[in-house]
Amino acid sequence: PAISPDGLYAIYPMLEPSYKKEEEVADLWLVPTDGREPPRRVTAGKGGEADPAWSRDSHLVAFAAKRGDDKQPQIYVIDLARGGEAQRATRISTGAQAPRFSPDGSRLLYLSRVFPESRNDADSERLAKQEEEQKYKAHVYTRYPVRSWDKWLDGKQLHLFVQRIGEQDGRDLLAGTELIRLPGFDLDKDSARWSPDGRSVIFAASRNLDRSAWSFTNADLWQVPVAGGEPRRLTGPDQPIAADSWSQPQFSRDGRTLFAMVRPLSDKVYNANRIAVFDWPSMRDRGRIALPDGREIVGYAVAPDGRSVDLLGEDAGQVKRYRASAEGGTAALIDAPEHGMYADLGIGGTRTATTIATYQSATEPPEIVRLDERGRGRRQLSSHARARAAALDLQEAENFWFTNSRGQRVHNMLVRPPAFDPQRKYPLLVLMHGGPFS
User: Fold this and answer.
1) Confidence bin at 48 (pLDDT 50/70/90)
2) What percentage of the chain reaches a pLDDT higher than 90?
3) What separation in angstroms does the CA of 136 have from each of 117, 118, 130, 142, 147?
4) What is the pTM of this model?
């Protein structure tokens, strides 16, 4: 879910699945964060909507969708204050995703996957036509990697685009730069953020992904001017060697502080990540925020006043909520649900914070919840799947522990089958989880 800056509403895409792909529905739903009304559907297109983002005044929502004669997903904008249909904002042949409004609401930042040599959309259309007219479909790879999980890579790159609302064409901020010519360039698709003054974009990108077959790799933070120019590296060494890896930059509401997630480099495979805190724009390092006992941070959100940070962290098969001072230090546990996990943390509001998340457990499908600011539980805002889940005989997971030969406590979970009878004997299916360490 995406919470409005004023904290009054949350908007989220909900998938209604089907065994027939053409019958799937993925519309946007809106719910008041005070729970006074149930969620309502605000879009109803045949193509699925994704990536909703609010304007700073909490009136407009931008999202990605494929509608009508769109050959690729485009960015649409809907005015929730005035009502009416969503209006298409982009017409880029390579498609658009992950929109974000500029601080003044006049421009959109979005991503598109383009040919590295493309300078504009006309180039992209020409290169796509050449590729389509080729009589062969063989692809020659001259650098690593060649696949992303179950898909072959096609040689295209994610680039950053900025477009003024109401105009037809966006500007590729990375076209022709030295950064994208590096063999290990790879843009982190979830990292792009406007600078507080709207004059530049902050993002995370790797320079050494081509070395991942034999070496640790990393991503650094970068800043690129909206007016054009070479991106400036904000973190990491001059050479594209493995170092600490950066992601998920966020600015405080007043624009004076930059937060970012950082995973330190060591000779170990696993290194617990931290939240780094910098003065902006000087990039003076103010410190680090960590979870207790070296636990993994899976998400974070900054309070409206910028003085504190809420974090989600893994702990024994759950994801719990922690809080820390924005000046750094070890976060304190404030919300530990009896079962299940939180995800998709978001904070809005002006004078006081309003915090939302998704919550799910072994017996409860994901739903939108509002979290108490003092950690005293949650209030459910949606119940799309509650009735169907209640009709199933789902068993809550049971946690148990044992101590290994090194004296370390090892966590386990036991899930019983439907209609479980404690008087019967059952076969035991054992899943060893933990990657190469199990």
Assistant:
1) confident
2) 87
3) 21, 22, 12, 18, 20
4) 0.94
CA–CA separation, 135 vs 153, rounded Å? 19
Distance CA 356, CA 12 (A): 11
The predicted pLDDT at position 47 comes to 75
Using 50, 70 and 90 to split pLDDT, how confident is the model at 161? very high
